[in-house]
């Protein structure tokens, strides 16, 4: 009887503990949902305020006109063109180097103290303030290498900024591939390169692509490093066209051209006392947020489609 009473008493304690843990789970879930909704509502309110303020400038002329001293005639043509060209240099530079570095560290690099040191530094670099990259680029690209205050310098600066993000996302995507995939490939006689290229890389492509797009969306809105290297705040001309009608059909003079980008143009308009320029800045901010959300949405959609087609 004593044993039975002891069991019943312990059973009551277990039920009480389970009930307490379920209550804590509900509280934590509610707190997490509250924080999520608080962040989303704040973002939506700010976004709606930008749309409401910048609505008068949501026209085609705003995208096809150069900046002007008159707010009613000012546009974003040179700014979004500069952003597009800078992002092109950033993508071409950061993605191949970042993906290759991630593949090497995860699949080829020996596991020793040196690679551990590299991994720690790469992870730490992902959290370094962007202004530090601007100061590094100012000394390295502008003065030491003599690239000047150009599109090439801006693209390389932002490439350094997102390089740790690309490397870390590549490694995380590769780690998500089951070991059995590699073992099966080796079992049928595949070489190391065949395993990495035909199986590991192709199966992790969705995760890698997601990290690349998220890194590019971050670079699109960066202002501090671009200001540091000396981007122009008012520019009423376009860089030379990258593609020409005459052989060899490619022109690289645009790499050394002066430039501005959308965040810099927005900052310039906000610094003006005239309220009409603030309307232009609000429209620019809304446009940057829309492009960023579209890029992140595209990353999520492509990752879903790619993973859906993978058959383990």
UniProtKB/TrEMBL annotation:
GO molecular function, one term: phosphate transmembrane transporter activity
Keyword field: Cell membrane, Membrane, Transmembrane, Transmembrane helix, Transport
Sequence intervals crossing the membrane: 26-51, 84-105, 125-145, 151-168, 226-245, 277-302
CDD domains noted in UniProt: TM_PBP2
Gene Ontology CC annotations of this record: plasma membrane
Intracellular or extracellular location(s): Cell inner membrane; Cell membrane
Domain of life: Bacteria
InterPro entries for this protein: MetI-like, MetI-like_sf, Phosphate_PstA
ABC transmembrane type-1 domain residues: 80-299
Family per similarity comment: Belongs to the binding-protein-dependent transport system permease family. CysTW subfamily.
PANTHER family membership: PHOSPHATE TRANSPORT SYSTEM PERMEASE PROTEIN PSTA (PTHR43470:SF5), PHOSPHATE TRANSPORT SYSTEM PERMEASE PROTEIN PSTA-RELATED (PTHR43470)
NCBIfam families assigned to the protein according to its UniProt record, in alphabetical order: 3a0107s02c
Protein name, entry field: Phosphate transport system permease protein PstA
